[in-house]
Amino acid sequence: MKIGILGGGQLGRMFIQEALKYDDEFHVLDPNPECSCAGISHFVKGDFNNYDDVLAFGKDKDVVTIEIEHVNAESLEALEKQGVKVVPNSGSVKIIQQKILQKSFYLENEIPSPEFQAIQNASERNFSLPFVQKMNTGGYDGKGVQIIKTEEDLQKMWDVPSVLEHLVDIDKELSVIIGINESGESQTFPVTEMVADPKLNLLDFNICPAAISGDVEDQITKIAEQFTNAIASPGLFAIELFLDKNGKVWVNETAPRLHNSGHQSQEGNANSQFEQFYRVVKNLPLADTTIFGFSGMLNLVGEENFSGKVKYEGLNEVMKLPQTYIHLYGKTDTKPGRKMGHINVLANSREELLEKLTHIKSLVKVKAETI
Amino acid sequence: MKIGILGGGQLGRMFIQEALKYDDEFHVLDPNPECSCAGISHFVKGDFNNYDDVLAFGKDKDVVTIEIEHVNAESLEALEKQGVKVVPNSGSVKIIQQKILQKSFYLENEIPSPEFQAIQNASERNFSLPFVQKMNTGGYDGKGVQIIKTEEDLQKMWDVPSVLEHLVDIDKELSVIIGINESGESQTFPVTEMVADPKLNLLDFNICPAAISGDVEDQITKIAEQFTNAIASPGLFAIELFLDKNGKVWVNETAPRLHNSGHQSQEGNANSQFEQFYRVVKNLPLADTTIFGFSGMLNLVGEENFSGKVKYEGLNEVMKLPQTYIHLYGKTDTKPGRKMGHINVLANSREELLEKLTHIKSLVKVKAETI
After folding, report:
1. What was the ipTM of the complex prediction?
2. Chain B nearest CA to A348, separation (Å)
3. Closest-CA residue of chain B to A342
């Protein structure tokens, strides 16, 4: 089958890597000929935000999918009208890529998500401090999101269409990944727990299973069911959640694609998110997502003050550790905060897992050959 | 690092697939532009048996390796002289690719292997019936090997340089895979047990761990040590063994490369033979090869009477089974006996494993769109 992917980053690369177990043909559209997928697929240079580029790329594919949600959704709709299968469908991508539509979707479907106001510009604000401002479009990896705490902060509000959102008093950040195929079958991955690096606003450790009560698990199961029923699209969706200090779960946001919070599934689960995504894209029976023990993931991000040809420190030491798996993304150049790879770890207990992850974090540095 | 691979078949494909976890550049030399590796590497069309082709291909690589042993060994030696690292080295490839040298190697190093006579032509035979005739060069997947039982059979002896070998009264066929890096570190995979399909003379099921006594295990450990000490080359080597009905272990033959008998390590071991091979090729610390339970592998080979565009039957049913992993080789066309893929299975006991494998074997057929 000819599978077209919009975006050629690490998510696409790990998807293709997993899917090399099967006999499909992968085509990738990306503006960067040096992208992570270029050497391992039929690469097409082009802009996935450009209507014509996407249409030309997609028209002869059996299925078109995405590894980034910031794509031209109108062209996806046009492809659907031409009879090309698009997974996830254009409707779901549109909802998710615009924060205002995404929040309205939660509201309409009674999915708990923090109270909000949608604004077209800063002057429309009618929402009490403190709050989070999320740009309607273009946010990614913490970009396009800022916290407005004080009257003084109001000066730095972005004057663009945005969602202003109530600040949750966060106890834990959680994530659940759901696969839904065209036949309507759905399968949820065990919930993972994140620890963020506040400085880079990037995911740091991701741990599975999350240490949560049965009640919290029930709330998440209900959210997953509500989401699955409402989204009306096949796809792999990552729902990022906040558990507040009163034990209530809120949806932060959803990604209509493979997600950083699912990387530990590569070795930690019976099947990974990449395998599940493959099955979703091809409308195959969904995969078993069982976990056998404790697993966790550490992102490898470019160190501050280093740019240029990447030079990893400590990887040989990490290779000597049992139940430890390095995944690099085929990126030649590093820059501060750039996601260059990750390391997955298996363990027999949460304590052992956190110890291993912390030790590995102390070993590895993502620097550059010259500063 | 620029890694050059001679051969673009499934072994190379699964090697590259695994190594996509790292940041290297893979170049493949194969005569067939439709080979399993073509779409996922820098492909060079050429003959790995041709001196000039191999030399031209290898000269600008950081390391040259093989996924098939029937390559031009003189060109590997020439590359070594030019300073290109070759893993496994040309000396070990030469020994293994010629059955007469291989048998002499065992004899010299006191590695137990069945009694034999080396002949240049049929008239030189001075070896009592029954015996196995193995052509000196070119044997593969059971080709170039025949059993001579009776005086009448002598008529069909091949009149070419060969090894005539004593027939072992086989209780079990076993295999052990050893990784040796340039630094001298070596690591052995747990022994696997094979069940062959007598009709196709192809590996059928491969099971890990093998059901063998401590004494047999000791014999194999000793063989592995003798081999490692004698071969004088980094590499991943698969030693195929016979356990005879008196409990003695004999070396059947060795492959200086990734091997079909190690495929179940993809999900059955902490790290697969492909990961280990990567570390050998790059002289990195070797990987942990621990097994967690029982694992097995079923080859998917083209059914008799079907040739042409492949059409698999039953794969969707297999996808519904837990702890079951399909691996196809990206081959468009099937023919009788062609290795098209394999299926790995995990289980909690040997009985459960054999039951699952037998069930899966009954589900899957490798046919063609038209007969």
Report:
1. 0.94
2. 13
3. B21
